[in-house]
Amino acid sequence: LDGDTRGGAALSIRAMCGKPVKYVGVGEKLTDIEPFHPDRMASRILGMGDVLTLIEKAQNAITEEDAARMAKKMKENSFNLEDYLEQLNSMKKMGSMRDMLEMIPGMGSKLKGANLDVDEKQLEKTKAIILSMTPKERRNPGILNASRRRRIAAGSGVQVQDVNRLLNQFEQTKQMMKKLSSGKMKFPF
């Protein structure tokens, strides 16, 4: 279901036919089918989000062991590009950024017209760049000099600027995680 109207239509059809709605399609892929929960659907239609479904998606995408390991790496400031790749894969399992944010109460109405969808091609490009690195380079991005960056760019089919952009993005993510784990960063809400 990609809109309030369709959600309301599904509930109306259920009322008319007397047959229960058991599953709903929430995307275009075969994996985008979820069990139907009327209370959660009503909450989405009213713009109150769906935190329970968001939590379920997170639990399915990330195991407790992975979360604990990642938290430890964040505290020790040993987060590397292998971990970054793992995080990208986990996010992809959960769905689009827009879908996740719409499940947070009050965020649905604020997202109208905002372009939050992360380009799938950009994600694939990022993964290709990381996978073109040697394991040593992924664990220690500080060793990536100009010649290594050229080799990685050629191996992943991108420009050197794309490799530099990814490394800058990674450093920003690493700094943000460091601030979060130390308690220095405050959330705006």
TrEMBL record:
PROSITE patterns, alphabetized: SRP54
InterPro entries per the UniProt record, alphabetical: P-loop_NTPase, Signal_recog_part_SRP54_M_sf, Signal_recog_particle_SRP54_M, SRP54, SRP54_GTPase_dom, SRP54_N_sf
SUPFAM superfamilies named in the record: P-loop containing nucleoside triphosphate hydrolases, Signal peptide-binding domain
Classification via Pfam families: SRP54 (PF00448), SRP_SPB (PF02978)
Statement: the UniProt record of this protein carries the keyword Ribonucleoprotein: no
Keyword annotations from UniProtKB, A to Z: GTP-binding, Nucleotide-binding
Record-given protein name: Signal recognition particle protein
Species of the source: Candidatus Stercoripulliclostridium pullicola
